[in-house]
Amino acid sequence: MTELRALYQEVILDHNKHPRNFHAVDPHSHQANGYNPLCGDKVHVQLRTNGDGCIEAIGFQGEGCAISTASASIMTESLKGHSIEQARAISERFHRLVTDDNAQADASLGKLGVLAGVRAYPMRVKCATLAWHTLQAALNEEDEVVAE
Amino acid sequence: MSLDVANTSAAAHGLDIAGLRADFPLLQRPMNGRRLAFLDSAASAQKPQCVIDAERECYETYYANIHRGVYALSQQSTQRYEAVRKIVKRFINAPDEREVVFVRGATEAINLVAQSFVRPKLSAGDEILITGMEHHANIVPWQLVAEATGAKLVVAPVLDNGELDMATLAEQISERTRFVSVVHVSNTLGTINPVSDIIALAHAKGIPVLVDGAQSAPHMPVDVQALGADFYCFSAHKTYGPSGAGVLWGRLEHLQAMPPYQGGGDMIRNVTFAQSDYADPPQRFEAGTPNIAGVIAMGTGLEYIESVGREPIVAHEQHLLAYANAQLEAIEGFRVIGTAPHKTGVISFVLEGIHPHDIGTILDMEGVAVRSGHHCTQPLMERFAVPATTRASFGLYNDEADVDALVSGLHRVKAMLSQ
Fold first, then answer.
1. CATH number belonging to the domain at A2-146, selected among 3.90.1010.10, 3.30.1310.10, 3.20.20.70, 3.40.190.10
2. Cβ distance B179 to B128 under 8 Å?
3. Distance between the two ends of chain B, CA-based, in angstroms?
4. Are B31 and B367 in contact (CB under 8 A)?
């Protein structure tokens, strides 16, 4: 069961069972809805930046599989306190991690490294990236993103 | 045909399932270190050796283009291709082999009928009646003709147990109804619809009916004359044949009155730049070089089903359904979507708090192949207020060990992911 454990690592199972920042952010400065019509997954990401342009609050709501829930949960943990520019850079590095077989999880990605195992499951990559596509839409001031 | 679960048992059908499994080379391969439990035949069935051999034999020994060559290879290919019409005629008890049109699959068959038979009859405000459990292939072709003509789609509702609401359906057949297109067996729910009753209701008002047989042809005896249908279609890849081949059966008087669906070679009698005369059915609807080897191998797949026996297949798959339900219902949080009393070996389900994609991935690692998603029936998912389901579906080669692997796999899923 080593392959399965590589995908469903304890950190992922934990974030699936106990998602962090699973709530609305009110008031918020950015928000977007993400939808994957193939699996029906929906995620709503909201965040608030402070006067310095740093993310001081971020949360998500919605329903999805363990991979998508854990990815959204770890995303909110990883981005809190970062500037929007830093958040975009982390988002790009995360995309490379889950799509590029040669990408390494560097220390800057922290806990997000546990999601690298999804690369071996091409049908599941979109589960890991839905919350991130939604984050990018929010930062670009787009209300909705459909990813499949 | 008896679909009474209580009266079926492993012994009653008399099938040698181990022997049948041995006919399917792919089932012999392990999956992720386990015995493969292939439970996705509703999406596409695996192929027996005889079907694989038929396609290879065609290419290796007698292949040439059909209908035009006067040389021996072309004549032999033509004869083998045309002989499949007789097999199909027998398989669905059609009155006349000229009514058997070869297409790419059920999807193309429905599009053909929508465009060539129904669309010319439609005016703004006319209605096409379908049901709430249709596959997208029996929804979108009708939306296309409705959009082009101003006609509208009327949808018969589905009851909570997955049966059609026949009382409402009867009321929905109106003066404006021009066509009824209904699925024989739901690919998502397994429900066997009372299509002969629906046909009788429609015919009482002079309305023709298409029966989408993609899920009935592989799993039960089909008699298009007893059903009273005007059109019936199925796909070879679900009847243990190759992909890219299928059948549209239609009453000869309809086919003769229909304009071609596509233009090209092989569907004409005479072509000038001023005008072309169309060939008679079925050639009128088979423009271009068809899937010659695929159609021939489709015939072999249908003969394989006949050699196993349609009634024994029904009994075997009903036995597996009952065997599976008894164990699955004991799993806490397990809920079947589609509990009609008359259904085929299709089990769509949800596990409370666990997403179908996680179930599908974890079962795969256990060697169990199931389908997760909306099964090309998004409106039905909405009807049952679920984003997706996991679906296990049986073919003639499945056995109790496959069901046992599914059940133990689901226990593992729960151990990993339960909240």
1. 3.90.1010.10
2. yes
3. 44
4. yes
CA dihedral B328, B329, B332, B334 (to 10 degrees): 80
- Indicate yes or no: CB of A7 within 8 angstroms of CB of B373: no
pLDDT in tens, B72-116: 999 999 999 999 999 999 999 999 999 999 999 999 999 999 999
Taking the CB of residue B9, how many other CB atoms lie within 10 A of it?
14
The phi and psi torsions of B192 (rounded to 5 degrees) equal -95, 110
Q: Where are the alpha helices (DSSP H) in B94-241?
A: 106-112, 140-149, 166-172, 195-203, 224-227
Determine the topology of domain B5-46+310-417 in CATH. Answer: Aspartate Aminotransferase, domain 1 (3.90.1150)
Instruction: Select the residue from A16, A63, A148 to test the B interface by mutation, using most B Cβ atoms within 10 A.
Output: A16
Contact call for residues B410 and B334 (beta carbons, < 8 A): yes
Asked if the Cβ–Cβ distance from B387 to A121 is below 8 Å, we say no
User: What is the band of B6 on the pLDDT scale with cuts at 50, 70, 90?
Assistant: very low
- Domains of chain A, by residue range, sit at 2-146
**B45/B148 Cα distance (integer angstroms):** 35
Cα–Cα distances in angstroms (integers) from residue A88 to residues A82, A114, B171, B247, B297, in the given order: 10, 19, 57, 52, 54
What are the residue boundaries of the structural domains of chain B, listed by start? 5-46+310-417, 52-306
- Number of CB pairs < 8 Å for A and B? 52
CA distance B235 to chain A (A): 23
Spatial contact of A135 and A87, defined as CB atoms under 8 Å apart: yes
Fold of B52-306: Aspartate Aminotransferase; domain 2 (3.40.640)
How far is Cα A40 from Cα A60, in angstroms, rounded to an integer? 16
Are B50 and B300 in contact by the 8 Å Cβ rule? The answer is yes
Q: Cβ atoms within 10 A of the Cβ of A38, count?
A: 16
Q: Write out residues 20-39 of A within 8 Å (CB-CB) of B.
A: 37-39
The 8-class DSSP code of residue B40 comes to B
For the segment B197-250, what is each residue's pLDDT rounded down to a tens digit? 999 999 999 999 999 999 999 999 999 999 999 999 999 999 999 999 999 999
What was the ipTM of the complex prediction?
Answer: 0.88
Do you know the residue count of chain A? 148
Distance CA B128, CA B21 (A): 42
Helix-, strand-, coil-residue percentages of chain A, each rounded to 5: 50, 20, 30
Place of tokens 């008679």: B280
Largest separation between any pair of C-alpha atoms in chain B: 72
